[in-house]
Specification:
The chain has 17 helices and six strands. It has 449 residues and is mainly alpha-helical. The protein has a four-stranded mixed β-sheet with strand order 1-3-2-6, with helices on both faces. Strand 4 (297-298) and strand 5 form a beta hairpin.
C-alpha cells in the first residue's frame, strides 16, 4: 500500500490534535462551576471572607488553565508544517498534565467544603475555623503577623494534618488558606487542631529552624546521636509545645490514643520521618505537664490527684516502685528541675541515658492514661535502665561508657528503626518516609496527634 501524501498526514494530525484540544478545553471550562463540585449550601456555611478567598483562588487557577488552552488553540490554527504540529502536540500534552494538577487542587478544596453539607457538621466546622484562627492570633498578633484564614474539614484516619497557608500546591500555585483535617474520632475532642496551627505559626515565625539548632547545640556535647534525632524532630516538638502552651494537659490523652500500638509500633523510627516515635513523644508531652503542673499524672489530671505517698523508691524502679517525698505545703513544683523546661529530660531519654533529675526519682512521667497494652509493658521510669528494648532477654548486653552511662551500642539500639525479617531469616528492605503531597501529614500511615 502506497504511503499517504504528506498533506493528508498533516491534515489527519491536525484533526486529531483539534479533537483532543476540544476535549481538554471543555473539561477546563467545566471546572469553573464550583457549585457542581460542592453544594451551594456547603459553600454558604463558610465565613464570607473564607468562602471568597477559596473561590477566588480556585477561579484564578481555572482561568489560567483556560488561557493555556487558548494558547494551544492559537498555535494549532497557525501551524503550517509538521514541525509546527509537533510543537502543538507538546503544548497539548503540557495542557493535559496541567489539567490533572489543577483538577487535584480544585477537588481537594471542593471535597473539604463538601464535608459541611449537613447543618450540624457545618456549624461545628465553622466553629473550629474560628478556634484555629484565634489560637494563631494569640501568638502572631503581638508579633505583628496576620493570622491566615483556616478551612477545617472532616476526613477518615487516625491523625490530623495541615496544608499550610502559602504552601506550594500541586499545580505550583499557593494555598490561599490553611486547610486542616479533623478526624471523625476526634471531632469533639479537637486538641489536634491547635497542634496543626502550631505548625503554621512555627512556619510564619521561623521557629522550627531556631528550635532545631537549639536542640542540637544543647544535646551534641552529651549525645551526638540524640542531637541529630531531636534536631530532625524539631517541627513536631514545636507543634506539641505550642498545643501544650495553649491547652495545657488536654492534648496528652488524645495524643496517647492516636499513637498507641504494640511495642514494635510505638518504638518504630522511620528514616526521614519528622515525628518522634510514639513512646518517647508521649513521654515528652507528659514531661511538659509535670514541669508546669507538678504532681502525679493520675486519672484526675496533672497535679489534681492526691499527692504521692512519701517513701524511698523500690529497687528496680518497677511499676509499683516508690515515690519521692511530698514537699511541705503540697507544692511539688520543685521536684521538676529547670532542665525539664529546657527539654533536656526527654532528649536524654532519646539518647539512651537517664533523664536529669533528683536522685531516685523518675525523669519522665507516665501518660495520663494507658490506652493499650503497649503502655502496660513500660516501666514507671524512663531512660536506658527502663527501656524494654535494651534489657529484654536474649538481646546483647549493653556497652557501658564512663560513669555507667550507656555507650554507643546502647544508643544504636534505641535509635535504629526496627528491622523486619522474612521466614527465611533474611533481612527485608526497611521502610522509608516519603512525603507524597504538600500536606504536612502526621505520618505515612496518617497517624498522629
Amino acid at each position: 500500500m502506497a504511503d499517504r501524501p504528506p498533506a493528508d498526514a498533516a491534515a489527519e494530525e491536525r484533526a486529531c490534535l483539534g479533537t483532543e484540544l476540544a476535549h481538554w478545553t471543555a473539561a477546563a471550562a467545566a471546572l469553573r462551576d464550583l457549585d457542581t463540585l460542592a453544594a451551594p449550601e456547603a459553600w454558604a456555611r463558610l465565613e464570607s471572607y473564607l468562602g471568597q478567598s477559596v473561590r477566588s483562588s480556585l477561579t484564578g487557577t481555572i482561568t489560567r488553565l483556560g488561557q493555556q488552552a487558548d494558547r494551544v488553540r492559537f498555535d494549532l490554527d497557525a501551524a503550517q508544517d509538521a514541525a509546527d504540529l509537533a510543537r502543538v502536540r507538546r503544548g497539548l500534552l503540557a495542557l493535559r498534565h496541567r489539567y490533572v494538577k489543577v483538577e487535584t487542587v480544585v477537588a481537594f478544596f471542593a471535597d473539604a467544603v463538601a464535608t459541611r453539607a449537613t447543618p450540624r457538621l457545618g456549624a461545628a466546622l465553622r466553629g473550629l475555623d474560628e478556634l484555629a484562627v484565634d489560637s494563631m492570633d494569640r501568638v502572631l498578633r503581638p508579633l505583628g503577623i496576620e493570622a491566615p484564614p483556616v478551612l477545617t474539614y472532616l476526613d477518615k484516619g487516625l491523625g490530623a494534618s495541615i496544608l499550610r497557608s502559602g504552601a506550594r500546591l500541586w499545580d505550583a500555585s499557593l494555598s490561599p488558606v490553611a486547610a486542616i483535617k479533623v478526624t471523625h474520632h476526634n471531632l469533639w475532642q479537637p486538641t489536634s487542631l491547635v497542634h496543626e496551627t502550631g505548625h503554621q505559626v512555627a512556619h510564619l515565625t521561623g521557629w522550627d529552624a531556631e528550635l532545631a539548632a537549639a536542640l542540637h547545640d544543647v544535646l551534641r556535647p552529651v549525645a551526638p546521636m540524640a542531637a541529630r534525632w531531636w534536631r530532625d524532630w524539631a517541627g513536631e516538638v514545636a507543634a506539641d509545645v505550642y498545643a501544650f502552651a495553649l491547652l495545657g494537659f488536654a492534648p496528652l490523652p488524645a495524643l496517647a490514643t492516636v499513637v498507641d500500638g504494640g511495642t514494635p509500633a510505638v518504638f518504630r523510627m522511620l528514616p526521614g520521618d519528622p515525628h518522634p516515635f510514639g513512646w518517647i513523644r508521649v513521654q515528652f508531652n507528659a514531661a511538659l505537664c509535670r514541669s508546669w503542673f507538678g504532681g502525679s499524672l493520675g486519672p484526675d489530671g496533672p497535679g489534681l490527684g492526691p499527692p504521692a505517698p512519701a517513701g524511698p523508691r523500690r529497687a528496680g524502679g518497677g511499676r509499683g516502685g516508690g515515690t519521692d517525698p511530698a514537699p511541705a505545703g503540697g507544692d511539688r513544683r520543685h521536684l521538676h528541675p529547670a532542665a525539664h523546661a529546657r527539654l533536656r529530660g526527654p532528649a536524654a531519654v532519646g539518647a539512651g541515658r537517664p533523664a536529669p533529675g533528683q536522685p531516685g526519682r523518675p525523669g519522665l512521667a507516665r501518660p495520663l492514661r494507658r490506652p493499650g497494652a503497649a503502655h502496660v509493658e513500660l516501666p514507671a521510669t524512663a531512660g536506658a535502665d527502663a527501656d524494654p528494648r535494651v534489657d529484654r532477654p536474649g538481646r546483647r548486653p549493653r556497652h557501658r561508657g564512663p560513669a555507667g552511662r550507656p555507650g554507643p551500642a546502647a544508643c544504636r539500639d534505641l535509635a535504629a528503626p526496627p528491622r523486619r525479617r522474612t521466614n527465611g531469616g533474611r533481612m527485608t528492605r526497611r521502610r522509608t518516609f516519603h512525603p507524597t503531597s504538600p500536606i504536612d501529614r502526621e505520618d505515612t500511615d496518617d497517624v498522629g496527634h
